[in-house]
Amino acid sequence: MVDISRRTMLTTTAAGTAAALALRGASPAAAQAAPTPAEVHGHDPIPLKWLEGGAPAEVTGGTTWGVPWPRGAFAPGQEFTLTTEAGAQVPVQTWPIGYWPDGSVKWTAHAISGAEPRAETYRLGAGTAARPAAPVVVKTDGGQVTVDTGVVTVAFARSGEHVITSITRGGTVIAKDGRLVASRQDKPEEPGKSESFTSRISSVHVEQSGPVRAVVRVEGRHKKGRREWLPFTVRCYLYAGSDAVRVVHTFVYDGNENKDFINGLGVRFAVPMRGEPHDRHVRFAGEGDGVLAEAVRGITGLRRDPGQAVRQAQYQGKATPDPATWDQRVTTRLHWIPAWGDYRLSQLTAHGFEIHKRTGPGHSWIRVDGGRRASGLAYVGGPTGGLAFGMRNFWQLHPTELEITGAATGEAQATVWMWSPRAGAMDLRFYHDGLGQDTYPEQLDALEITYEDYEPGFGTPYGVARTTELTFWALGGTPSSERFAQLAAANATPPLLTSPPQHNHAAGVFGSWSPVDRSVPAKAALEDKLDLMHKYHREQVDQRSWYGFWDYGDIMHSYDGDRHVWRYDVGGYAWDNSELSTDLWLWYHYLRTGDAKAFRFAEAMTRHTSEVDMYHLGKWRGLGTRHGILHWADSAKQVRISNAGYKRFYYFLTADERIGDVMHDLIDSDRTFLVLDPGRKINGGEPFDPDPKALGVGQTTDWGSLAMAWLAEWERGGDPIARTKLVNGATTIAALPNGWVQAGVTYNLADGRFNPMTEKSVSIGSLSSVFGLIEVMTELIGLIDDQAVKAKWLEFCRLYNATKAEQKEVTGADWGNLNLRQAYSRATAYAARQLGDQALAERAWQELRTGHAGYPDNHPFGARRVEGPAVLNPVDEADLSTNASAQFGLAAFQCLALVGEHI
Fold first, then answer.
1. Among 183, 450, 511, 553, which is disulfide-ready with 571 (CB 3.0 to 4.6 Å)?
2. Is residue 3 part of a domain?
3. What is the mean pLDDT of residues 100-109?
4. Residue 531 pLDDT exceeds 90
């Protein structure tokens, strides 16, 4: 087995390294690499609204979003102006993040600060951008990077353990010594050897420097002594006029799952404490608008009353009057009142949190209160300033914790625990002993019963990752309970501006889809089914409690009607792991509807599948893992799961740099075919001696997944090898005698070409095009002017659901008993649209309605309620499976868009 460094791909062209650096920051440098369009036509201003509607009371520093534009509308250097519905200009920062082949802008990213007055709706159009009154200022010297938002100054260390050395507001240090903390133990359950690690910085890069938004990327590892592990990337986002620092934290697990059991993972700041203990405040957000408001040394509820004004000031988080003005029976006895310096809110499950406090180490913890689902925000400080700190998806990503220690001393410690030390150790070991599956024949036989593809040593978590979003506010004083609740809401659901489905569709992005259309009864009936299906799967997340650090964002694959549960414990029927393009279905549903719940559902899945379900380190870097009981358990490691096409939507709609990194890392994932033989079990385990000039890369499932990564890189103006391989692959497949169904093809790694063949032969499977091939070809044909590619692809689309006689006439052999014919109705619809063939259009609708391997026209989409004692908790169940739902949804969306008039 050849062990190839995944980074070697970028040495194939000198431009690759420069492009990689430009893409990481989504900076204007990327625009300079794109060709200048011959002419641009402009575009009328478009409306924007907040995803959840209304005008948010708070945002997490600011907001960044993406907008698509039709081909030829704007050149890369175009400026944009943003105005409220009342006509007021809002300072906006703009940069291109996607290009059409002619060099015109396909996607622009925009950022505004939360410090600006917020409106319910805006208009975005060409024009001179307004600048903020106090633009973000970034300075770099040999030892640190500083970012001044006009309200706070944040200093980043370029080395050492402190990611952020200080956050200063008005000359007052609000927080300092910000670092990452982690701990491990060498046994999963019994007390054993335990070690604590802290961040060690290896690099700091300024990815954007204003005027509205600055982005600083910090990379490093956790270190203790000579050991360095758990590599991390931390991006910090700061906006003009804002006192918030938004943090996107990613770590990769690179330990030994049998020896390295993480029992704590967090981000910690030191918070200087000023004033007397009775003027120091602690706040925790509960569920909804709930807030726990306490002081380190309480002066309410005492036997003696200091006075109403004193009590109210403390409760409201204001400075108390001079103690000389209090009832002296209280003033002279303040030293007898305990100071509660340590607090923690622990959310160890999705269904309950507890708050405890103590006076200090060596003393008992006292239960304060509890609740169901905390919003994930805490505060420690006083009337002269303090730190609010929180984590998004706090209860969904349990076990989590917000901890305050030392608040009664001169310096408190504020920690966001992404994995709470109170939860026990993170156990990532495989869940069984192999069951005697020592040979390939035994493993193939076991696959026939549990649908799990097992192989010793393949169920490893080495190289999987997790990304978490956090926010830190450097406040000038203790916030009111109302303001704190608003901060908590913004932390839990960061507001996002969006363009309407009608504009996104008119821009011509993401292939064949159309906004919801209920203009005729037949369309309305189909839209109702699509809504019911989506709602059912979305609500199953909460009903089945699909939450947790490694699980949140994914959904289950198949249902067990006897037990009334999803098959969470049955081999390959458990977690979905993007099987049959669930991600695509959810994103297209959002594009069509503009629905906030649909966006958040798809967003959570993208965060999960792009991190947990694929490898970011090691020999399988760039590969994803097929569906199973553990996300990384199955031995089928495949590019169809790591598919960049599942991530493009989120990147272009939000300009999220982390997702951009993941997509960029996939442009050389064809090199994994040098490392792992996908057919090793079928060919009997013959010695694997891959030839880089003749690799066994399939031109359907494999190439379609690779093509999505290359398309995304080409769109973003990145490494030119991506466009080269994308076009070479499509043109050489089209030159094969039977194109996408030609048997025995081989692939040249150097340039992405498939080697020529002269004799017709057929090899085709039902999974060939259900991992994004149909979608990427729809887009690619619209981007390149190659009639041979178009003709060969239309031949494939027309023939998949054709008769065997028709298939044999064209390709020399019939295609066998193919499955998933409902899913391929969208291929028929595409051919019908391109060829102007009404008979094909009618055939497409008949294929969709017949529902082969999916949902026929009379299929019930409604759910039935099941209650105890048949189930543990009341649940809804329906005759729906995730594979069938994803493919039915995609087929229906595209039939409506392509041949909707023939419904």
1. 450
2. yes
3. 97
4. yes
- Tokens standing for residue 336: 């007898």
Q: Give the E-state strand segments of 52-171 in sequence order.
A: 62-68, 80-84, 89-90, 93-99, 105-113, 121-126, 137-140, 144-148, 152-157, 164-169
Per this entry, what is the length of the chain? 903
The Cα–Cα gap between 538 and 3 comes to: 41
Q: Is the same domain home to 39 and 8?
A: no
User: CB of 74 within 8 A of CB of 97?
Assistant: no
Q: What strands, in cross-sheet order, belong to the sheet with 93-99?
A: 62-68, 105-113, 93-99
Mean pLDDT of 209-213: 96
Distance in angstroms (rounded) separating the CA atoms of residues 208 and 97? 13
Beta bridge partners of 297: none
> Phi and psi (nearest 5°) for 835?
-95, -10
HSE-CB at 555 with a 13 A cutoff on CA atoms is 30
Please give the full DSSP string across 721-765, using - where no structure is assigned: HHHHHHHHHHHHHHTSTTGGGBSS--EETTTTEEPP--S--B---
Distance (Å, whole) CA 655 – CA 107: 9
- The tally of domains found in the chain comes to 4
| Integer Cα distance of 474 and 245 in angstroms | 8
Boundary of a domain, candidates 621, 646, 679:
679
pLDDT band for position 872 (cuts 50, 70, 90): very high
Tokens describing residue 596: 């906030």
Same structural domain for residues 100 and 1?
A: no
> Which has the closest alpha carbon to 777: 793, 801, 764, 798?
793
CB atoms within 10 A of CB 686: 9
Burial 292-327 (b: 16+ CB within 10 A, else e): bbbbbbbbeeeeeebeeebbebbbebbbbeebeebe
Task: Name which of 14-28, 61-75, 626-640, 672-686 the model is least confident about.
Answer: 14-28
**36 near 698, Cβ under 8 Å?**
no
| DSSP annotation string for 219-287 | EEEEEETTEEEEEEEEEEEEETT--EEEEEEEEE--S-TTT-EEEEEEEEEEEE--S-GGG-EEEEE-S
Rounded to whole angstroms, the Cα distance separating 391 from 393 reads 7
- Asked, for residue 338, whether it belongs to a domain, the answer is yes
Residue type, 856: P
pLDDT number for residue 21: 37
Is pTM, for the whole model, over 0.90?
yes
Q: Which residue has the tokens 């002081």?
A: 295
What is the identity of the amino acid at 900?
G
Q: How far is CA 239 from CA 26, 172, 211, 475, 642, in A?
A: 16, 19, 8, 15, 33
Beta-bridged to residue 474, according to DSSP, are 387
Q: What residues are paired with 137 via a beta bridge?
A: 148
Q: What is the 3-state secondary structure (H, E, C) of 75-98?
A: CCCCCEEEEECCCCEECCEEEEEE
Residue 475 included in any domain:
yes
DSSP strand pairing (281-285 vs 377-382): antiparallel
The continuous run of DSSP H or E covering 393 comes out as none
> Contact, 74 vs 690, CB < 8 A?
no
Written as six digits, the tokens of 636 are 């089928």
Which among 238, 245, 603 has a CA at the least distance from the CA of 390?
245
Contact indicator for 330, 303 with CB cutoff of 8 Å: no
User: What whole-number distance in Å separates Cα of residue 255 and Cα of residue 663?
Assistant: 24
Which of 105, 126, 147 marks a domain boundary? 126
User: From CA 446, how far away is CA 458, in angstroms rounded?
Assistant: 16
For the chain, the average pLDDT equals: 95
Token pair of 52 as six digits: 């959840």
Alpha carbon separation from 772 to 45, 667, 704, 782 (Å, rounded): 33, 16, 6, 16
- In this structure, are 241 and 346 located in the same domain? yes
Q: Is residue 213 part of a domain?
A: yes
